[in-house]
Structure formats: structure tokens, C-alpha cells
Amino acid sequence: MTEAVMPTYGRVDIAFERGEGAYLYDTEGQKFLDFATGLAVLCLGHGHPHLVSEIQRQAATLMHTSNLYRISGQERLAERLVANTFADTVFFCNSGAEANECAIKAARRYHHENGQPERFRVITFENCFHGRTLATIAATGQEKVLDGFGPKVDGFDQVPLGDIDALRAAIGDATAAILVEPIQAEGGVLPVSDQLMQEIRRICDDAGLLLMVDEVQTGMGRTGRLLAHEWSGVSPDIATLGKGIGGGFPVGACLATAEAAKGMVPGTHGSTYGGNPLAMAAGNAVLDVILADGFMEQVQYIGDVLLSRLEDLRRRNDSVIEEVRGKGLLVGIKCKVPNMDLVTAMRARNVLVPPAGDNVMRMLPPLNIEASHVDEAIAALEDVCRELGQ
């Protein structure tokens, strides 16, 4: 590995050169089942023909113009997202962290427009993860992401997830919004119950706060609904997207109601690359596939199969696996041994899986996997559990 690349990652010494469907192939010719998908990015797997053809077509036609001009693909993608979600309007950017930055700015601007500029603070929850910018590491609040980057950006207060009394106590005259993930994915695949999401919505309504939902990892069909908060029946004021929205191409989006976004007028926010023609071709191609009849139902079905198989495996290997949790194809396996032992042993069996907080190993396969891929992953994990359980 070259020293020319800044060493901010603890990389595994594997270089991949091509992908096909649910598989990756490295430079040595080894084949790996990809249940990591670039951390929930490759929602359609590798080399999906429709996504590839749309990106190729757009790249050969027009890649970039800037937001000085209308972008027809951006207008189309925004209209489709609005038609299929709670939102009235969409801002496009390049990543989930940027989408969360936009959400934070929109919340501050909303209260500014209401004549309450002192309301700028956002409440987040312990074990959350909202990005790597200076503001979003402050929102995340974990020492491991804040260390060395002080002073911490002001404006964020954190409470334990599920502690309603602490949440109510944290609300003050300066509070603007609550930011929550429907499932704390990086934190260990910790779901927020429907009842808790509904209670957070009521608290926001009572206190005049905006409810902001971080759907960067949970959105774009990952749980079997376009956005994961839909399971709770709650409608947020703002939601953020990243990862899967471009199927591998860098795209982020901040979705909002017209009321929540009323302060986001010309000159208040922008992005050089955000929503450019090439990115929008990718986003529209992904929506073509995941909004097709039966796609979400298949994600729910195969997700149920995976969770059921994992639960059976846990019962046979309870010295290694403590708990299986998640929804759809966002799955967490809480380990009784170090989670990286499982991650490393799975990779040795040519199955790629990422870790998460709370000593969890995640499974984040493409949304269009088949039962045979589940069989392959389960067989590898069975071998790993048998080995580690000895």
C-alpha cells in the first residue's frame, strides 16, 4: 500500500478489480460474496445493467453543468422522491454527511424565519452516527470521532435513546430540532421502535421542534420500505439520504416539507457537484428499479428469510452469537466473541461483512439478492461459529 494515500483508513490488504451481481473479484482472481456493499451503497449490487447503461448514456451526453442552470434529471428525481415520500422539496448533494449538514442548516434557518434565531440546538441520541464533517461529528458526539478535532462545534445535545424523560429535560428555549436514525446502523443496528418514533414526533409537535430523520443507511429500500421511518407511520419534517440513492455513484439528498424548508432560499446553500446530470442519471436509474412493482416486497421477503436463518443459527451457536437484530436487509449480529474475529473469519471464507458498534457484525447485502446468496452466507457463518465456538 502506497504512502501517497493519506493513512486515515485501516485497510484490509485486498484490491478488487471487478464486480458482478452480489460478487466481487480481487486482483488475484478470488471471488467474494459481498454482504458489505460498500457500507449499504451498492443497493443493486455490482454492474447492474440498467444502472450501468444509464450512467454510460449520460456520461457520453453531458456530465456536469453546475446549478447555475436547470438540470432536467434533477427535477425528475426530485419530483419522484416527492411523489413517493412525505417531502415537498429536495436538495441534492454528494453524501449523507452533506445531506445532514443541509438538514441542520435548514432547521436553524426555519426558526430564523420564524423570528427565533436563538433556536439553533439539535438533540441527538447516544450511539448515533451522522457523518464526518465538523458539525456532524459534533452531532454524533462520540469521543472516538471527536478526539483531536476540538473545539467541538456548538449546538448539539445528546440523550440516551429511549429515555423520554431525559429527552424532554434536554429541550430548552434554544432547541430547534431532534435528529434520529430509524435504526442506529453504525451504532450496532439498534432499531428505534415504532412507539418511540411516534413519541418523538409528539414531543416535537408539543415543543415546536422539527423532526429530522437520518435515513442515510436505512433509506432507499434497505428495510423493505423506501424510507425506514414509514414503518412507524410517522411523518418527519426533514429526512436525509445518501449511500444507496446512487447505487454506487456519490449522491446525497435532503428531503423536507415546504414549511421546514421555507428559509432555504437562493444564496442560503449550495453544492458544486450536487445534483449534476451524471449523479441524477444514477439516482433515477436506482429509483427505476426499486420502485418497480414487487421490489420492496421481495426485499421484505428475503430479509425475513435471512433473519430467520440467522436466528436458527444463533440458537445452535449461542456461545458465539448473542442476538440477531435489524429489519429487511439491514442486519446486525451481536457477538459474544470480538466482532472482528467473525468479520476476519468470514473474509477468510470469501464473504465480506462489516463491523458496527456494540460488538456487532453487520450484513448489508444488495437488495436484489436471491435465496442462494443467503444460503452461501449462512453456510460460511456456520463454519465460523463452529470454529470460534471451540
Task: Describe what this molecule looks like in 3D.
The protein is an alpha/beta fold and 390 residues long. The chain is 37% helix and 18% strand. The chain is built from 12 helices and 17 strands. The chain has helices at 37-40, 49-61, 72-83, 96-113, 134-140, 143-146, 164-170, 194-207, 277-290, 295-316, 339-348, 371-388; strands spanning 16-20, 23-26, 31-34, 89-93, 121-125, 156-159, 175-180, 183-184, 190-191, 210-214, 238-241, 252-256, 321-327, 330-335, 351-352, 355-356, 360-363. The strands form 4 sheets. It has a 7-stranded mixed sheet with strand order 4-12-11-10-7-5-6, with helices on both faces. The chain has a 4-stranded mixed sheet with strand order 1-2-3-15. α3 packs parallel to α9 (277-290) and α10 runs parallel beside α12. 49% of the residues are buried.
Summarize the model shown:
The protein has 390 residues and is an alpha/beta fold. It has helices at 37-40, 49-61, 72-83, 96-113, 134-140, 143-146, 164-170, 194-207, 277-290, 295-316, 339-348, 371-388; strands at 16-20, 23-26, 31-34, 89-93, 121-125, 156-159, 175-180, 183-184, 190-191, 210-214, 238-241, 252-256, 321-327, 330-335, 351-352, 355-356, 360-363. The mean pLDDT is 98.
